[in-house]
Amino acid sequence: MHKKVRQRISYKTAELARRANTTGVPAYLKEHLVQRVPSRQTRSAASPLLFVPRLTTDFARRSFSYAAPVIWNSLPTEVMLCNILLSPNRLTDTTPAPQQPSVGIHGAL
Hints:
This protein is globular. The chain has one domain (3-38, 46-88). The protein has helices at residues 3-23, 27-30, 64-74, 77-81. The termini are far apart. It is an all-alpha fold.
């Protein structure tokens, strides 16, 4: 697969995991995501990590219940805790530049 296609799949999977994790919608995906409960206090305990099930086949590793936690847990903590959704199509600044006053050759009119 092309690199861009894999990136897009990873982005969509992470976005679905974020949406299901924070809002519970879609509910059928939320039931496949389990919050990881740390057994002891560590620095990463504050991160909202997901439990990754142990699977033995490559086919099972393609499932959402496995792929979403793997991708989600690989994100930086700042991204996991961010509530703002940035679409990859909207990463460019779309706000118009402030208008500059018109200045003629001889200065301001």
